[in-house]
Amino acid sequence: MDRSLDVGHVAETLPSLGAALEDSRLRPFGIVVGVSLLVAGALLSLIPSTDPLAFWANAVAATLVFVGVPLFCLGLAAPDPPAQSHFHLGVNLSTKQRQAVAVGAFCITLSPVVMALGSPLGLSVLVLATAATMAFVGSALVLTGFIAWTSERLSNPQSA
Q1: 53-105 confidence digits (pLDDT tens)
Q2: What is the DSSP string of 12-42?
Q3: Which residues, in sequence order, are CB contacts of 150 under 8 Å at separation 6+?
């Protein structure tokens, strides 16, 4: 069997979540792509409501924002790149804080997917409650990661 079809070999070569979150290349990607998606979403939402394509423009804008915000948060949570980089912001979260931000970003990104897949089933109240809970918990996790880092920096300013 070809090595690319061997499940064991493929599983051994996949990076772990911890290794992916420790990669400083995530910061420029997350910040640039996240901000780009947010700007595109904001510009699409400016289409007047009288336009026949306004519904679809707003749907695409909402999707771009729901993907752009978590991606931007992941970019901020990534380790600081070398000091000569343009993306050296001084934000350097611990591994646990990065994991909290990553799980929160995943929940935020998954909440509109739950709405899109669950709404046609006719369980609108349950689907809405599930998606809203996922977005709320995801936002709380993202904020928890950054608030924990901020409080750590405020309590120990010498570690800068």
Answers
A1: 888 888 889 889 888 988 998 888 888 877 777 777 777 888 888 889 999 99
A2: HHSPPHHHHHT-TTHHHHHHHHHHHHHHHHH
A3: none
